[in-house]
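To: structure subgroup
Subject: Chain for Friday's discussion

All,

I'm putting the inputs and outputs inline so they're searchable in the archive.
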Amino acid sequence: MKQPTDATQSASENSEPSRQFKLVKKSKLVKMGMTAAVAFGGMVLATQQAQALSALAIVNGLTASGGVTVSKDILYGDEPAQDLDVYYPKPLAQAMKSQKTITSSYPMVVFVHGGSWESGNKDEYAFVGQSLAQAGYVTAVINYRKAPEHVYPDFVEDTAQAIAWSYKNAESLHADPQRLAVIGHSAGAFNVVAAVSNEDFLAPYGISPNDITAVIGIAGPYSYDFRKYGGSSAFANDATPDEVMPDRQIKGPQPPYLLLTAENDKTVYDTNTVKMTQALKDYGATVENGEIKGASHATSIGAMAPPLRWVNDVRAQVLSYLNKKLD
């Protein structure tokens, strides 16, 4: 991971503010998905057809179910956007289908998607739920309320509520609440890290950060000035980075963290992870870092789909950490 000096960072911010945080353009995402689809299995799509598809649709189309079963649209709160899908590993799904007595419990993961706090939904990230369930984890993929109708802290509170719901309902899902990890990508990584690193977000829902076994953040914008570099619609007009960035809001006991960056990320600059890591370590938390070689911001999550695992090693890094912490 490259950590620029203050002088280098200042020059970079002045000359290329979009490097700190900017929206991923749809055309860029489509191009990424198109490239992956063509390379995998010899699939060929005409340019005009590709323009009608999102990269996430292509990824989901490539992902085999692998025997995974999903329970859709489970409410964790009272608002329409406060729902989630639960993906079950194949052996568990088979046992549930045959109504056999289930005596074993599975580790559980809660996944929170990105989208600049304005876009995306759980259905677009079905491939993550399928991928993790195929690896043996009961997996909840959540929705949350979004900007501009809902600004910080609404989406962080939703994330905390969904984590607490998963923890409290784990046993009914044949999962072990003592082996619960949370994962977020991009804006979702912000949500996850903010919700867990500050105990005030989880407290209203009856759990604590030390109820979480592990946290994984992938390419998260944990420490930047949204007033200059994008995402301002997700925060109150009078909000400041000191008031909302999770590297400045750490409170309470902390679980271990894995914070990943993408080598070729031009959307969320890696200094976000550098600063979040240092803040957590200064607080006394255990933090590991990893770089996803060759990954862009988009492929740092897209390669979680098993058919695209050759694109980069994000899936391998995530599963290695989960295996170490949950199994």
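Points worth raising on Friday:
The domain at 6-326 is CATH 3.40.50.1820 (Rossmann fold).
Residues 111 and 183 are 5 Å apart (CA to CA).

D.
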